[in-house]
Amino acid sequence: MDLNLKRRGRRTLTKALAATIVVIALGVPLTKVVAQTATSYAPVAVKEDFQETMARMTAAKLEVMKRQTDLLAARYDLSDRPAEAITMSSGKPVQAGVRVNLSSGMTWDRLARMTTQEIREKGLFPKGFLPLPHPNHAEGGMVFPQYHIDEIKGQEGRDLTRFDLDYDLPTHFLPEYPPPMYLTTRPDLGDVSQGKVVTIDNYYELFNGILNPKQIEGLRLLITPFPQQQFNQTEDRRSARPHRGVTCFDCHVNGHTNATTHLVGDIRPQEFRHGLDTPPLRGVNIQRLFGSQRALKSIEDFTEFEQRAAYFDGDPVIATKKGANILERGSQVHFMAEMQSILDFPPAPKLDVFGKLNPSQATKSELRGQEVFFGKSRCAECHPAPYYTDNLMHNLQTERFFKPQMVNGRMASSDGPIKTFPLRGIKDSPPYLHDRRLLTLEDTVEFFNLITEVKLTEQEKKDLVAFLRCL
Predict the structure, then answer these.
(1) What's the pLDDT at 5?
(2) Which of 36, 390, 412, 440 has its CA 20 to 30 A from that of 280?
(3) How many CB atoms lie within 10 A of CB 105?
(4) 410 has pLDDT over 90
(5) Which residues contact 245 (CB under 8 A, 6 or more apart)?
(6) Contact 267/246 with Cβ under 8 angstroms?
(7) Any domain includes 123
(8) 298 and 447 share one domain
(9) Is residue 285 classed exposed, middle or buried when 0-12, 13-18 and 19+ CB atoms within 10 A define those classes?
(10) Does residue 6 carry a pLDDT above 90?
(11) Quick one: 217 and 321 in the same domain?
């Protein structure tokens, strides 16, 4: 397919989606109006010369990023306002306060007292509660924070820069870097990474004598670059030079997360794909559902799936072209899974063996917050102690509150079922929800207070945040 034909196809799809918004608003089932021009497959035989592609997309980058920057500024208060005396495990300040902007004259208390229908009809659902698009949703793909790009380039000479776009959220809303790394097998050691980003350059000296041979080999594979959709040798890559690829720990740095974003691979067309926030691998041994639709039931399944399909936007046809890494299940997959399964949550000194607060160590606000969590707010129905997950999927039905709308190339219509992630160590892994739309724990509490209609008071919200910071 030539470039002009592809562009005409995109224009046709955009018009069809605009019509879809109108039809949905009128109550017509979405399945009857999906654009017929959509395809499940990416183009395999690219006709445009690579240098032309890079020049075209580099020229468009400024406008692409301005559009996303303007969206973020309209949705959120992006200022650097850390909480007093609250830090992540290695000392990075935790951002404080509700950052989602409300409509002029609206308050959170007044909004929570309105009916779902009234919020929807008057268009009062906060924009920051709508799905957050990828920095360039039409393009998608892995996008890394700049500090990780700089670190990997310095250590390995591997450049994770994309010529077409940059990461979008300010650094102060992201997890600390490098994050500490804890092992269930050696809790006595504390941070086994010794304050370093674990890479192929240093893993052996850091872990020889701590891990067994299988785990060391599993770790080596987790930090070995393999081809990925945007980082490979083909003419449709998004790196200036041909590329060895990315590693598992490029997103899950030190077995945690650096908030790298991507798009889920299991939804089509592109406009309906969810943005993705990289979840921590800490405590992955207690989880039972994996993948954005949670169809994978073991960490072994997920590890193999990542290399075969997720690295390539869920398209095995493209994976064949770009260089899929087919892992051997009985050894390589097993070794990688064994390593991931010993990644531990950070210490939580105020929790007892049942995952509840020790009254002698907690503040009055934290204890009140625990009562709210297990009582009025109904958080514990999906997030039971001690790890604060039920390992299930839940549909929050956020679409009750807003009419379908296009947001920077993302069709905001519904989220569908999403996984209950563990809340242990939650203050170490902002931003929140599956697509990064909530920047702080205060935003998260306001979101669920509205969505679940539990009508918490201002004091109850503050106490609940205080409790969550203890987990």
Answers:
(1) 39
(2) 412
(3) 6
(4) yes
(5) 225, 226, 227, 228, 231, 232, 311, 323
(6) no
(7) yes
(8) no
(9) middle
(10) no
(11) yes
Amino acid in position 57: M
Residue 126 has pLDDT above 80, yes or no: yes
Average pLDDT on 93-110 reads 97
Co-location of 167 and 246 in the same domain: yes
DSSP codes joined into one string, 382-402: TS-TTTT--S-EEE--GGGGS
For strands 405-407 and 410-412, give the pairing: antiparallel
Q: Which of 317, 347, 377 is the last residue of a domain?
A: 347
Q: Is residue 102 part of a domain?
A: yes
Residue 369's CATH number:
1.10.760.10
Q: Given its phi and psi angles, is residue 445 left (phi above 0), alpha (psi -120 to 50 degrees) or beta?
A: alpha
Q: Which two tokens stand for residue 207?
A: 């872990």
279: left (phi over 0), alpha (psi -120 to 50) or beta: beta
Residues 281 and 218 in one domain: yes
Own/partner long-range contacts of 62-71 (Cβ < 8 Å, ≥24 apart)? 64/135, 64/136, 64/164, 64/165, 65/135, 65/165, 65/166, 65/168, 67/408, 68/133, 68/135, 68/136, 68/168, 68/408, 69/168, 71/133, 71/407, 71/408
pLDDT band at 295 (very low <50, low <70, confident <90, very high): confident
Alpha helices, H only, 171-255: 203-207, 213-222, 248-251
Confidence category of residue 111, pLDDT binned at 50, 70, 90: very high
Both 242 and 297 in one domain: the answer is yes
Q: Is residue 66 part of a domain?
A: no
Task: Tell me if 258 sits within 8 A of 267, measured CB to CB.
Answer: no
Both tokens of residue 272?
A: 């309906």
Per the CB < 8 A criterion, the answer to whether 178 and 202 are in contact is no
Provide the pLDDT for residue 309: 85
For residue 292, name the pLDDT band (cuts at 50, 70, 90): confident
- pLDDT attached to residue 294: 74
Q: Residue 140 in contact with residue 263, Cβ under 8 Å?
A: yes
Residues 417 and 381 reside in one and the same domain: yes
Chain mean position to CA 447 = 17
What integer is the mean pLDDT of 59-85?
98
How far apart are the C-alpha atoms of 17 and 15, rounded to whole Å?
5
My answer on whether 258 and 173 are in the same domain is yes
Number of domains in the chain: 3
Query: Do 22 and 167 belong together in one domain?
Result: no
Q: Does residue 150 sit within a domain?
A: yes
User: Do 373 and 461 contact (CB within 8 A), yes or no?
Assistant: no
Last-in-domain residue among 303, 328, 347: 347
Query: Where in the sequence is the domain holding 276, given as residue range(s)?
Result: 132-347
